[in-house]
Design a protein that fits this description.
Layout lengths: L16 H22 L8 H9 L14 E10 L3 H4 L10 E9 L14 E8 L5 E7 L9 H10 L11 H10 L3 H10 L11 E10 L5 E10 L8 H6 L4 H11 L3 E9 L19 E14 L19 E3 L3 H22 L15
Helix pairs in contact: 1-9, 2-9, 4-5
């Protein structure tokens, strides 16, 4: 069995709904400011419209709109000796920082089968002893599908199943690729890259760029990733066909029963000319990389009752020493996350709590 997780901050049912909604409203205002600064409002595209498209007319009350199925996890971050040279953020100087996180799969179905989800994800909240927070969300793909929110909206529309066939319309997808040719690289990755057989041996990448400033005032554009200390093991098409719907959470609990699961947090520094504000473009492999520390997870818990359920892993919540880049996808993520958070908190507040899903009665 996995090690017990710290209890949620409050027992359910939760009564202070007005306070939650007040916090959500503040988050929404902040997210809107980020989106406005990012310059992606216009042409009728709003975070509400993007969230509607992600829902595809099939919202699941009380759940996240994207990466809907997942589990809460807990652990800690331990910085390396080199970390403080990168950024003055407290997380890189205090001996250890607790982590409240979430492992998930791509897609908007809380009942989705793990083996059919191409993308695996992790979200982390690190809160230092002086109260500062670092929230980050990473995915298993090495770069984003498109460079702009408009492109992402177009991709979601083009990949929506045709009611007549249950599959995306090839003509719409071809038109999308003609308008956003950078997406072909992502589709090639999705078709050719091997699938991992565990969250624990998956590399998670932060495809958006940020700025680190160290104590000497030196500022660098960076991206980060979590590289597993466990060796990669592929999951074949045959294995995917027979895997249990919840095999990722089941495998991770089995892995935790044997001991903590760890990743190296690797920070990559950009050089002049690298595409800072375009997450669809990877940086060259020869860029300087620094192991900034170790992310260690020690426990997991179903998200329905876990402390990650009501967290918004907004990647623009950053401590002193870190700053968001002008990447428009980053601003859009913040705004759409806020819309998702507001919607599900209202749904929970009106009594429409998430239903337990998955085999064996676990909430995912």
């Amino acid at each position: 069995m996995s090690q017990p997780m710290p209890p949620p901050p409050s027992s359910r049912p939760r009564s202070p709904v007005p306070a939650l909604l007040g916090i959500a409203a503040i988050v929404a205002v902040i997210a809107a400011v980020f989106a406005w600064v990012g310059g992606w409002f216009g042409g009728g595209l709003t975070p509400q419209r993007m969230a509607d498209t992600i829902e595809a007319g099939k919202p699941h009350p009380g759940f996240r709109r994207a990466h809907t199925k997942g589990v809460c996890v807990a652990g800690s971050f331990t910085p390396s000796a080199q970390a403080a040279q990168l950024s003055k953020a407290r997380v890189f100087s205090q001996p250890s920082t607790p982590i409240l996180g979430r492992l998930s799969i791509g897609g908007g179905d809380p009942h989705g089968a793990d083996a059919q989800a191409r993308v695996r994800s992790v979200a982390l909240l690190l809160k230092t002893d002086d109260g500062q927070e670092w929230r980050t969300a990473m995915n298993s793909f090495p770069f984003f599908v498109v460079a702009t929110p408009q492109g992402f909206q177009a991709q979601n529309l083009a990949s929506a199943p045709d009611p007549a066939t249950g599959k995306p319309d090839p003509a719409r997808m071809a038109a999308f690729l003609k308008q956003y040719p950078e997406a072909q690289k992502f589709l090639d990755w999705a078709k050719s890259a091997p699938w991992s057989n565990s969250w624990g041996n998956t590399q998670f990448n932060g495809v958006n760029s940020f700025y680190f400033t160290n104590a000497q005032g030196q500022r660098h554009a960076v991206r980060w990733s979590m590289r597993p200390q466990a060796p990669f093991e592929p999951l074949s098409a045959q294995q995917r066909a027979i895997s249990d719907a919840d095999f990722l959470s089941e495998e991770f609990n089995t892995r935790l029963a044997k001991g903590p699961v760890a990743w190296d947090l690797v920070v990559t520094q950009a050089q002049d000319g690298d595409p800072i504000d375009d997450p669809s473009q990877p940086w060259p492999q020869d860029r300087r990389q620094v192991v900034a520390g170790t992310v260690t997870l020690v426990s997991s818990q179903p998200q329905e009752t876990g402390p990650c359920r009501d967290l918004n892993y907004d990647p623009t919540v950053l401590p002193d020493g870190m700053a968001a880049s002008a990447d428009p996808i980053l601003a859009a993520r913040s705004a759409v996350y806020s819309v998702s958070f507001n919607r599900r908190e209202r749904e929970i507040g009106t009594g429409r709590a998430p239903e337990a899903t998955g085999t064996k009665g676990e909430a995912k």
